[in-house]
Structure formats: C-alpha cells, structure tokens
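Protein 1 of 2
SEQ + STRUCT:
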Amino acid sequence: MLVAESTLLEALYKYFGYEQFKGDQEAIIRNVLERRNTFVIMPTGGGKSMCYQLPALMSEGTAIVISPLIALMKNQVDAIRGFNTDDGVAHFLNSSLTKAEIQTVRKDIKAGKTKLLYVAPESLTKEENVKFLQEVNISFFAIDEAHCISEWGHDFRPEYRRLRPIIDEIGKVPIIALTATATEKVQGDIQKNLGMMDAALFKASFNRANLYYEIRPKQNVLKEMIKFVKQHSGKSGVIYCLSRKKVEEVAETLTVNGIRALPYHAGLDASTRASHQDKFLMEEVDVIVATIAFGMGIDKPDVRFVIHHDIPKSLEGYYQETGRAGRDGREGRCVTFYSYKDIEKLEKFMKGKPVAEQEIGKQLLLETVGYAETSVCRRRVLLNYFGERYDQDNCGNCDNCLHPKPQIEAQDELELLIEAILAVKEKHQAEHIVNVLLGKTDQQVKTYKHDKLELFGDGGDQSERFWTTLIRQAVLSGLLHKDIDNYGLLKVSESGHEYLKTPTSFKIALDTSFDNTESDDDDEFSGGGSGGGGAADEQLFEMLKNLRKNVAKNMNVPPFVVFQDPSLEEMATNYPISVDELKNIAGVGSGKAVKYGKPFIDLIKKYVEDNDIERPMDLVVKSVVNKSGLKVYIIQNIDRKISLDAMAKAKGLKLTEMITELETIVASGTKIDIGYYINEVIDEDRQDEVFEYFQTAETDSVADALKELGEDDYTEEDIRLMRIKFMSEMGN
C-alpha cells in the first residue's frame, strides 16, 4: 500500500509520540508497508524495533516477530503495551506461558486485537503453532537478531536456519530481517538462507561517534573495575564475563564494595533473571554483571559504560555488546580487559567441534586479536571489519587516538610483504606469509616448497610482531584484502599492485603485545586480603611493630597472636583507616579487626594525616569472604567433632594439607575448637608444655618450637595442631 509522508508522520506521533523518524526508518517502514522483502542492518541504538513495530500497528492482521530471547520478548511487549490502552495489542508465545495464558493469546489474535506476536524460533516449529498460524491473517514476518542464522555470525543458532521452510508452510508473506551487526559474509548468508536475495537492503553507518573504546591489559581486573565503577558512581553500566562462575564472583565483589550490582546468566531461573533485568531498567541497581545472554534488544538508553572482563569471541559480539552503551547519543565508555591467554582459552573451547566450525571460530578470534592489539584507531579497525571505510586519521575518542604510539618507516618491508603474498599465489593466510618472511620451515612451508622461494627468510631482521602489525595496517589501508570466504587468505588489492609499481612512504606504529598479562584474577581475592599494592612504608612498619608489642604486653599474649608480620607489612603498604578496611588486610579478618584494630587504625590515620599520604585506591576493594565448600565443610564437621583424619580422607587430602586449611581459617580470625581431636593424639602434659612455650615465644615458627621442645618428643603435626589451638583461643 502506498502511504503519504504526512500519514506516516501522523502514525509515528499517534502510536509513539515522536515527531521525526531517525535515519532510514521512514524508507524502511514504507518498504514494509508496500509488502516488499526488507533487510535492515542498523547498529544498536539506531531504532531497529520501530522499523517493524510501526508498520505492524498500521497494517491489517498480525505481524509475527521471531526473537531469540524470552527476556527480550517480555521487554518489547511491555514497551508496546505502554503506548496502547489495550494489552491485547502485543503478545509473546513461548515456553514460559501456561496453557490458560496461551488460550488468551490465541483468543486475542483471532479477535483481531493483536498487532504484534513475538515468537521464539523453537515455538514457531511446533506443529500446533504452525496449524494455528495458518488460520491467522499475517501481515508480515519480522526476524530480529537475524545474524543468528549465519555460522559466521557471533551468535549462531541452528534453529534459525529452519525458519524459511516454516514461514513458507504458514503462508506467503513478506519478510523483514534485522540485525545490528553483519559483515558482508554474514549479510550474504542471511539473505541466501531466507531466500530474500531480492530484498531492499538498508545499511546504516556502523560508526557510533559517542562511544569511547579502550583496551587495558588484564592485570588486577577486579580492583581496576571497582575503581572505574566508583569513578562513574550512580551511572548505569554492564559488565560482561564469559563464564557464569565469574559473573557471580564479580557481582558479589562489587556488592561488598558498596556498588549496587546484580548477576544475570542462563543458570538463574527465569523469574530471577526477569527480576534482575527489571531492577536494572528501573534503576534499583546500577550495574548488571552478565554473560552474553543479557542485553539483546534491552532498550535502556542511558547505559554509560560497558566493561568486558573477558574479550568476546568475535568482533560482531564485541560491537553489539559495546553498542549497548550510550544509545541516547551521549557518553558511552567501552573498556575491555585483554590478555592473549584468554584467546588460548577460547581456542581450547573450540576443540572437538566440526573442523569447518573450528576454522570459522579461529578466523573470528584472529580478527578480535588484531583489534585488541592494534595501535591504530580502534574505530577505523571496527568499521573496516564491517566493510565501511573510515578515512580520518584520528577519531579523538579511543585510547590509541588519544595516546598515539610513535611510528616507524616500513616502505621497504611493505614492498617485500606484497611480493611474498604474490609469490605464494595469494593462497595462504597471514601466519604462513610471516613464516615465509621469517624463514621458518614449518610443515606447511615445506609441503608447498616455499622454503625454496628466492625471498624466503628475507624478513628475518624484523620480528613476528612487526610483520603481523604490518599486515593488519596494510589491510586497513586497502593495499591488502583478507578473503573471509576462504578462511582469511591474503590477497593483494588493486591499490596494492599500484603501490608495488610506485612505492611511497608507509609508516606504522607497532602493535601492543599482551602475551605476558595475567589472564585470570581468581587468586587475587581468594583469602582475607587484597594484597599489597607496593613497597611497605618502613617508618610506619616499625611504629606498628612497637604498637603491637605494647598491645600484646597489655593483653598478656605474644605479639604474633595480635598480628603477624605480613599483616603489618600490608598495613604499612595500604594504610587502612577503618575497621572495614582493616578486615581486608591478609591475616586479619573481622574477629581480629574488632578485637585489636582500634589502636592500629588510630595510629595509621594520624600517620597518614601528618605525612600527607595519598592512600592507594585499591585499598577500598573488599574481598568476598571465601565461602569455598571446603572451608564450610571443615567448620561444620569440627562443630560435629568429626576426626580430622576422616575429614581429610573424605576430601582426598593428606593430614598435612588438612592442617594447612585449618591454619588459613584461624589466620583469618575464625575461632575453631579442635581440642577433641588433639586430646586423642597428644597427651595432656605435652599439650600444656607446647601451650606454655607459645605464651612466651617471640615467633610462631614451628622449627623454633621443635628445636626448643625436642624433635624426639614432638612431630611437626603436633606443633602445628597446638599452634592452631593456641592462636584460636588467644587471638580470635
């Protein structure tokens, strides 16, 4: 149907209260209303939903919207109902509905009330639903998140590939397919699979000028994240992690540090996920920590930052997830923590998958590595990946443009690189080309006899990193082309052939190497402390030791019972000035912080003020209490007076390892009573002798105790067990 411009604007205002369309929205909507197949590639925040919602409301019948996530459907249905007086205008049909609710949905559709029906692809394949929809007047099908169709997309779903035959079975109606991310390869895949090569294509620019992109080395990640979130206090943000376990850990750590955060992942039940999502949308929490399951289509315009704890598996995934920041066109900061070790982990996950899938996954990962390690404008790299040229040298809104690296001349090397690609007949990937240039004879080089090439080894005076950098930057400059259809084979473009005829200056900045950054911070917060942030303040350390001596004397206990030296060293490094901060020091815990802490806090506070000391930011990071199953198991079984040998056996530990666990528990300030076990293995007189020794000892050294008490009379386990009893009774 032909629709006048004024009619479209009137409908936009009537249904949604807007006076103007954004970008290509008007042309897309007109195309859908004229019942033509339509393919929309529009970045997150560009207003994709409007492209099918408005024509659905204006058309006869019901539009079927295929969507991959239940949470997303609920979110969109709620939004549409918010603009209408009748809730029947929009429904979803998925596994979360009861039989009675399904009947209500069908009744509203048959009565002609429902303009939009959101369906999961799995629900669409059910025979009963196909039969029902065959009797319904359908205006068109909208396939949201259409990249799920392609194996080259970042979120491939096999059930999406079965959509076309099912749509044909239901009835011949037009299709609108929409996605926020699609390379040319993915775009072709979608159109081919949906049988819509004739579709009108609308492709908006992928440039989100308001987003700031930054890659940081993966070191002290939790501390860095907390520092960042606190610097953006009160603002909404999303933190993405690859595993559910990491999501839970990060959310819990943020919470104990006074940040309003909740987890979101597929392991939570549907009602919890919906509740956490709603709290984020309603601003009852500031931060959602999530796996990639969160955010598809979540329409929260004021997300101010997106942090990636782990680098995503593909640049499409990265682009879509970062795209959830700043959808209102205002500030959006995208910070990713990256270590090459994470790439190695992702490669391991791919093993066991079909070879073709592994090859695709490897290519996608290589693009991600290139982006993370590049020293050129990140915006330029991203847009190039999506087939869009960005000719500005400096975007002014990414870490590389704001802090450019020095450049070096690479004209001669670029000529050699192009010659090498032509010499191997443009039939190999970057890794192979680099091996030829460096003179490395791996199996592939030998097989193709490329070690016999005249230029074999001619690039040996440069490093592997240099050649990898040069290849990436030559691709960005359009001199080389990466053939994604053929797993990333390097080809020389027309411009590259021209360059070889008349070479000119070509400068590159060396990419950053992230090989040595820590990829995991599991150990950082496992115990009672945050770990020292630098060298201890010697003067303060001596003052704390003197104070400890006086406190110990007044309480009639040895100094090491109050605090051990490593705890004092950490205090002299991090300057804790509250009980909460003191609890976070290794070997302190809440019991000792309350019992002995006040004079130490007072001394440190005065020292900080007198010497005008700037305390390290990471001190405020409180660790999550170690709730490991083993610790809980030990404490519960000690309460039940179970033998330590029996506990060790049950957990597959040696007795010495069990004693080490007990020492850790006591050092963190938890009081335990293992007297029942000690009474079985050490007689009373010998217990008294060891107890008396520790009351006057200068250190808690086991070796010193054995020397003093006699190695013939006591074992190391005896002394360690008695030391646990002594520390627990006297110190905790």
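Protein 2 of 2
SEQ + STRUCT:
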Amino acid sequence: MKAVLVVLAVTVGAQPAMQFSRAAGEWTEALPIGNGRMGAMVFGGAADERLQLNDDRVWAGSKMDRLNPNAARALPEVRRLLWAGKVREAEELAERDMISKPRRMPPYQPVGDLLLHFPGHDQVSAYERKLDLSTAVHTVRYKTFGAAYTREVFASYPGRVIAMRIRSDKKGAVSFRARMRREADAVASARGDLLVLEGQALPHGERQATEPRAGTRFRAQVRIGLTGGEMRASGEELIVTGADEATLLITTESGFPEGDFEALRRAHVADYSRLFGRASLQLDSAAANVKLANLYWDFARYLLIASSRPGTEATTLQGLWNASLEPPWDSKYTININTEMNYWPAEVLNLAELHEPLFDLVERAMEDGRRVARTMYGARGFVLHHNTDYWGHATPIDGVGSGIWPMGGAWLALHYWDHFDYGRDREFLARRGFPVMKEASLFLLDHLTEGPGGVLVTGPSISPENRYRTRDGAVGKLVMGPSMDSEIAYLLFTRTMAAAEILGVEPGLRAELARARGRLPKPRVGKHGQLMEWLEDYDEPDPGHRHISQLFALHPSDQITVRGTPELARAARVSLERRLASGSGHTGWSWAWIVNFWARLEEGDKAWADVEALLTKSVLPNLFSTHPPFQIDGNFGGAAGMSEMLLQSHSGEIHLLPALPGAWAAGEVRGWRARGGVEVDMKWAGGRLVSARLVSRLGGTYRVRVARGDLVREVVLGKGEGVNLAP
C-alpha cells in the first residue's frame, strides 16, 4: 500500500480519477482500459510507451473430450470408500480415475504489445499520467524540448477500437517509431499506414506435451493517421517524423470505424458515461483511507464496464488484462467463488446488462456440462466443477483438492435468479433463467445420495480447497456432504421452485424439489460454537484457510440472517472470528468476502476494518487486487461489500444503512438498485439516515428498514412511482 500512497500518488479530484507523477515501471503500475472485447494496459512512458493488448477471445487449446474414461466406474467406489472412512484410498482412486485428461484447461493469453519510441524524450518535466474514471480516458502530459505533449487513449465500445491521439503545442514536433510484438507464436509487419500482428494462441510450458497445438487465431492492426509530417515503413516499424498530430486506431476486428478521433471520443464518452453515471457513492470524509475506499469502489465499476459488455466474454480471473502466455491459474474462470464474485456488484450498482456475458458463458458450458453429467454421474441436467474456460469445459481438473467439486454450475445458475430478482424481467426468467436453473437442479436431484439419518448429500465433493482431520488423525480433502454444497442446493431448489411458480409451470418438478430440499442437511452448530463446515464436526488442519465456504448461507445466500436465524448468525460470527484469528484473508478476494460477511452480520466497524485491510494488504500500485500476484475478483468483491454495508435487500426487506461504520458518518448514494425492481437514493449525516427516495419500476409492496434495525413501514408503490422517506 505504501507504493500506492507514496510512490505513485493516487488522487481523487472533483471527478474520480487516478493520477500519477511518473510512468509505470512494471505491469502492476500500468493502468487498464477496455471496451469489453479489447483491453490494454497503458504504461505512459514519455520516451517509450507500451500498450499491452488483450482480446477476450485469445485462448490456447481447443474444445475436446477431457473426461477421464474411468470416471463413471470409479464414482460408486469412491463414495463407498468415503462412507467407510477410507479417505486416503478414496482420494488416490479419484486422483487417478476422476480427474480429467489432460489435467489442466488451456489458458487465456495476450495479443501482444504496441510499442512507441519517442526519440529524445528521456528527460521531461511536468509529467502527469491520469485515468479519468468518469470518462474512461487515459491521458499522459509532459514537457520536453520547450514543447508540451499530450497523449490520450481510450477503448471504445461503440467504435470497437482502441484510439490514441498524440499532440504537441509546437508545430511539427510529433516524431516516433511504432511496432508490434508478441513473445511467441505471432508475426509482425508494417506497410503503408498499417502495423499488423498475426498469430495463434498455443500452449506453452508443461502443456505442450499434453495439450493439442491449437488455439484461437488473431490479427491485430494499428492504423496511423497524421496531420502534417511524414510516415514510412522500415522492416516491422512505422516511422513518423515532423507531424503536428498523430492518431492511432487499434483493432482486432476486420476493419476500422468511420469518423475522426473527436467523433470517436464523443461517442465513447457518451456510451461509457451512460453506464458509469447511473450510480454514485460519495463518502463525505477528509480521511485519506475513506477517500481511497471511495475511489476503489468507483474503480471497480470502471473495471466491470471495461471488461464485461453485452456480446463479449465474461470477466476472467484477471478481468480482461493478462500479459503472460502462462498466467497464474491460467486466467480462466474459477467458479468456486471467484467468477461469481466478479459479478456481485453488477445488479445493485445498476449495471445489470453487464451480467449478460456470464450467462453466455454458462450457456456455452452447458453443452459439455450435460455430457459430463450424463457420462460421469448418470444424471440429468448439467454439471460444472470448479473451473471452466472459453471452450466451456466441464470436467474436474487439477486434482482432488480443488477439482472434484460438482457445484459450479449450481452456483452460477443462482446468478440468473439474482438478475431476475433485481429487475423482475419475466421474459428473461422464462427464456434464460428458469431453463438453466431447472437443469442445474435436475443434476443435483440425480446426484444426491442418501446419508446417515436419511439426509441427501452431494459427494464425492470438497469444501472448496480446504482440508479436514478425522478422529483418527487422517487429513482429507474429499468428503461426502460438505456444508456449502447443501447450502447451495437448498438455495437453488428454493429459487427454482419460486421461478416455476411465477411462470406457472412444472408443478411436478416443484414437488420433487420440495421433497428433496426437505431432506438436505440443515446448517448446524459445532463444538466450538461455529457453523459446521462438514457433515461431521471435524477439526481443521488449516484454521486460517482463505475459503470460508460454510458461510455461503450468510452471504451470498440469505439462509442465515441476524433476525431470522440468530443462533446460526452467532455461529457464523464464531466461524469468521476463528478464521480471522488464525490468519484468514491474506488474498484480495478473501478479504472482500469477509467484508460482505460482516455487512450481513450488520457489523459496520468490523466491515470497515476489513475494507482497510483489503486496501492496505491486498492492493497493487494501480489499485488492482492481489491474489497474489493479481486477480480482479477482490476489486469487484470489495465494491460489493461496501455496497452491502449501505444497502441490503434480501429476505423480503430493503434495509438502508445496515452496517454503517463510524468512519462513514456522512454520505450519499444515488441510483442504486434493490431487489424487487426498486431504485434507491439516500443521504445520511451524523451516522443516521437523513432522507431516502425509493422508486419502483414495476410497482409493489416493500418493507423498509433503516439502521439500528428500526422498521420504518410498508411502502406501496405503483409502477414508476416513488416515495420520499425521512425518519
């Protein structure tokens, strides 16, 4: 965090912005731009500028049958061994016969780099590098040789292009060399006014021996236009001399947009501002940490707009931005929390359409998910495990400690309900939401097996990435009936039943789901007063584990609430405190989830303490969240947690300021959304609500609660009608 505050001075002006007094020296100091499809990390060097480029379709590998041919035969034996307490034998069999072949999925890869060299610009003054979050325009300014230089760059969604303009206040002073490069598997060329980089995303490292030499092909082009001056090609470079101004258009599409730079800029700002301007948060505090938190919240909205637009791919572990041919965890989709967390802020912060790429990903993965459900489990519906990728692979990968977790599809299906619940679009529910929820439920109905006392449990499975210790001292990963699985199944069955009832369909399925839901294990309190993580009250070899999966019932679910289930809420708190006392957190996304937990427990000061921990311990110089090294989920999860502190709308109530910390004594939010099709504006001062306005997009009756648990009243609103509330 010292790097952010001291070395690279992050500031907040009248409009949210990130401003630095020197160029980025490394990738985690560069600033991201993106239009959902294309992204770039902009370094801002005066003499040497680098734009590291991404396209969300550039993936190594190919769609193939990765299912272990022995998986179906091994499944009943693994279950038998687990029920018999022979954990080691069960894991050895599962490792050999259930993990996919090959064991890993292919990675998301970069397009390459655009490199600009400005001769003689090594010594400059008045340097400024700024990313304006209100316009999504990156600007570099500096002076050298008695001239002032300005470079603007943005990624336009309507223009489907990254555009850069280079200007000087001195006529004929713009001269530079431009070229493109990629670490491997691409060829660069220059001709006329074009730079071209053509290549294919191929596997590297250990995967070269197991993964087909295949991947998506790509072509990146840069067209340079000049006002004044000259340009010529030399080898792989374009050389510009003596121009007044230069415009660079960068695309991975087949052509370039019409219009000059100013027209592209106006269209870009109008399009982006339409989204960014819908919601706002203003924390009225002079404290630097509060201002930084406010900026972090705005930055998360910026990142979601930049990395997830309708018609593009869903945000990966690194959003849209990756510079490595072999990125950490392959920069794919980890769906045992990380991908879901990426989309937690989408609905409440009025960016609902940005949720759509996630639905596209799920529906693409359902094809392989159906095959794996049928072939591996003998089940209807579809299954996804803890990872998927651009190709939609559904098999368990990596190893038993993370891969054999059959709940990824079920968790993702719940996002369809959330999208419906905030907007109440019945047509979406019928066309997309219910069909996916139904198929995820059908898989679980067939997958569940009877356990002690007649309960229905999943298995073999894990409590994501954690281990347990049995009474005889054995340490295991695989288990039957981990708590998180039962909590996800309970919520999915509940939401699927509700969707079917709203649509007036599938009475037989509703009855079947109700019967199965009644036999799922309920959340239980263990020997330490904690919420139990497994079917039995096992000890924990890693008491500070980063996943706190048994608290899914607290967040993002609402099966545990402060007033509805006080005993379980106390147990959830004990689990959280025990994890934190043993060092949990320590990654950006884990801190972010903890913020959401404290918000649901209505502990504002504790939530704020973990926001501070997130910003102090898990943020890079450019405000990217760490894993380490970098994952974007902490950015999105942190913003969602801050939002949960100020507005919650689960369990049939709209709760205003449910977890307001003392450090946020005054502030204002505008344009936020609550479940039930309601938009919320509110102000508070002195730690208490001053005013609130609720506007219903559909009409309905709403229960409204304010801070400290006081029920205000039931509010009845017609379609488009609003109400002003003042305590």
